[in-house]
Design goal:
Number of strands: 6
Shape: globular
CATH superfamily: Ribonuclease H-like superfamily/Ribonuclease H
Strand content: 15-25%
Oligomer: single chain
Number of domains: 1
Largest sheet: 6 strands, mixed
Strand order of the largest sheet: 5-4-1-2-3-6
Radius of gyration: 16 Å
Distance between the termini: 26 Å
Number of helices: 5
């Protein structure tokens, strides 16, 4: 069975989103979807939101973008980064509202939602929970045989978030370097 996963890297002005497909070589269930599974990067992009727009209009734009992806790809899962307190509590609060859009869409559409901490995501891709954004971007591009810096960091982060879910839940993963990305 095949299914799609949407990865969301929440941000109030720049937000990374991606769609990754997982093609299971056996009939799907958690115990049998564990050999020779092909992962394909179907779409990855960064949504840049106008800083002059009010927050509610930026949130509506994010809602619309995620809904379109759900309409096109019919995902089984939406994966996002869990909220963390970084440099600014105000920023964390706004990013939490952006994450709320992913939570709302998953509830409305009955799509399973999973979330991982930044350290878990970094660990799953690089083996280091404190990896830098550039290291994540490099690993994602290397896995999918993309040119250096062909993905923006926010897009690469969204791919890393989706891959974290796949690596933690399925074995026998093979990355398809012949991706079908729309924006390459």
């Amino acid at each position: 069975m095949n299914f799609n996963v949407i990865g969301v890297d929440p941000g109030s002005y720049k937000m990374g989103i991606c769609v990754i497909g997982l093609e299971c070589q056996k009939n799907f269930n958690v115990s049998s979807c564990n050999e020779n599974n092909l992962v394909t990067l179907k779409e990855a992009k960064t949504i840049i939101l106008n800083k002059n727009f009010h927050l509610q209009h930026r949130l509506m734009h994010i809602y619309n973008e995620l809904n379109v992806l759900c309409d096109v790809y019919n995902p089984k899962y939406i994966i996002t980064e869990s909220t963390f307190l970084g440099k600014s509590p105000k920023s964390a609060f706004i990013v939490g509202q952006v994450r709320g859009i992913a939570l709302l869409i998953s509830a409305i559409r009955n799509i399973e939602l999973c979330e991982y901490s930044p350290a878990e995501i970094k660990m799953s891709l690089t083996g280091k929970g404190n990896a830098q954004k550039e290291q994540i971007q490099f690993m994602v591009e290397k896995m999918f045989d993309l040119k250096n810096n062909s993905l923006e960091q926010d897009s690469a982060d969204a791919v890393a978030i989706a891959l974290c879910f796949i690596f933690r839940n399925y074995k026998g993963i093979k990355i398809n370097p012949y991706h079908s990305r729309k924006d390459v």
